[in-house]
Amino acid sequence: MGTLLEVEDLTVWLATRNGPRKAVDGLTFRVDSGEVFGIAGESGSGKTMTAMALLGLLPHAARTSGRAVFEGRDLLAMKPRELRDVRGRSIAMVSQDPSTSLHPMLSIETQVTEHMRHHLGVGKSEARGRAVELLSTVRIPDPERALRAHPAQFSGGMRQRIAIAVALACEPRLLLADEPTTALDVTVQAGILRLLNRLRQERDLAVVVITHDLGVMSAVADRICVMYGGRTAEIGPRETVLTHPRHPYTRGLLDALPHPEGGAATLRPIPGSPPSLGAVPEGCPFHPRCAFAVASCREERPEPVPVGSDHRVACPPDPLGGEA
Amino acid sequence: MSVLLEATGVAVEYHRTGAPPLRAVDHADLTLSRGEILGLVGESGCGKSTLGRAVVGLQRTAAGEIRFDGRPVAPLGLRRRPAGLRGLQMVFQDPYASLNPRRLVGDQVGDGYLLGGTTKAEARRRAGELLERVGLPADAVRRYPHEFSGGQRQRIAIARTLAAEPSCIIADEPISALDASAQASVANLLVELVRELDMGMVFISHDLSVVRQIADRTAVMYLGRVVEAGPTRQVWSEPAHPYTKALISAVPRADGAGVLPVELPGDVPDPSRPPGGCRFHPRCPVALPSCAQDDPPLTILRDGRSAACVLAK
Q1: Which of A36, B75, B147, B248 minimizes the number of CB atoms within 10 Å of its CB?
Q2: Which domains does chain B have, with CATH numbers?
Q3: How many CB atoms lie within 10 A of CB B112?
Q4: What is the pLDDT of residue B75?
Q5: Whole-complex ipTM
Q6: Residue B120 above 60 pLDDT?
Q7: Are residues A209 and A294 both part of a single domain?
Q8: B258–A155: do the CB atoms touch at under 8 Å?
Q9: Any idea where the ABC transporter domain is (chain A) (predicted)?
């Protein structure tokens, strides 16, 4: 597996009333081809802004620094025109809510064929044939008829499958899926997760899954990056991060989950709430909520350092090191 | 334990122009005792919220009977809600929509006391106490909802409910609009309050793992009906209905094992045209030929469990 995307020291400033504020702060990760890479974190942790920065879809007046090398070219240095050729073609996106990501007034055919006609110059009838194939790949029953229908005629799960078909139209190498199952029921979610996994295997597609749901992470991701306050808290292989977390924040997220066997009568939340944009504390962004914080956590910004094979953690006191 | 809330054979129809009425809830049964948390789960569109609204009287029923503390629950009309129903209250899903943005938090929380016949000053004082009880600073009384985060707003909404001194709370997806860390703490708060004030609570949620953690009993709904009910522990360890089994195995676990959740094929059918026979039979992995004809009623099994399936023992 080669490296498909290499993000180095990505920083995103968003314009706020009080001047520019960092939404993403020095993020470094790589995505190999054919792998599912998960980005986890609560709302406001910077996970969606990371995806938007890669696609050049940040809000107006946002600024970025760092590098994001995709197939040898730096996405952050591209001109808008060059980026337009990449977006929807080699990098595609699936967003959280299929009822807003699909156009309500356009037929499914128009939406599924739009990208291939624009990017690949495919003719109308050929595009239609490919659209039928795509819809059957994502398991839409009766694809011929579905092409003539409109989004409102489908359930939420079916719409998300159609949105995935739209994203796959130009056979992208990388799919960015931002909370792809959050709006769906668990039974439907299971189907979408299985679909993403099958696509990854059959098409050698790399998928970046952004979610706050560690159960979803555990089901599909090969490697996981846990973000907090725009920074990497912990990054490593799925099993290591979820069974032997080394960062107190990852531990806290896992402890806050309902226990798989029922058991204890109450949930164990992390005290406090995540920082808002522009109010990220000095030092380690997690220190005000951390049970293990020491004096140095208030002053020094921890950088993720290697603690095991392919496992990096930004917590110098390393209170969980002994457990691992 | 005495029965606090009892719904039998409840049906709710939504009337639509140019189409037959949609039966969102069709002969659903529920019972809730004092001091008990009942988790009501199911996929979206199964009618769980409609049933929740019907039992507090926010939704007119087409059939069935709902009794709270022995008195029948009448649907909300133009007249004042009967005083006997003051103890039956609801917590809504979205605290951004359920609080009035233009009224002080203290005034909104104090409404329940005013209805109980207290003076304005007294209502405000007690609103402050309630806000402290739900974990907010006492000065929240003089602030507006927009000054609070989602989790804090839901605490305000809960305090507002408590001011009516309820003995029974219907909480409709009370934590699903909140952030992960706020979810756990608001769920904990509700559980604490139920135990401390000896109330009953129906906790409506699509999040099965939270229900498993906090509910004493669980009721599973499918297409307008309760298909299984029983003590949470037993329902989870040995589900009697194939639908319950499918729901449970679709929940992904954060154990790092990389196991894909099990898929339940098909979508929830259109409730205006439910399938004949057992409503679950088109999606059921263990359906018998007879399931296409016979509609199984919710049958009592043992140990306080019940299920609507011919295969359930």
Answers
A1: B147
A2: 3-75+84-235+242-251 (3.40.50.300)
A3: 23
A4: 87
A5: 0.81
A6: yes
A7: yes
A8: no
A9: 5-254
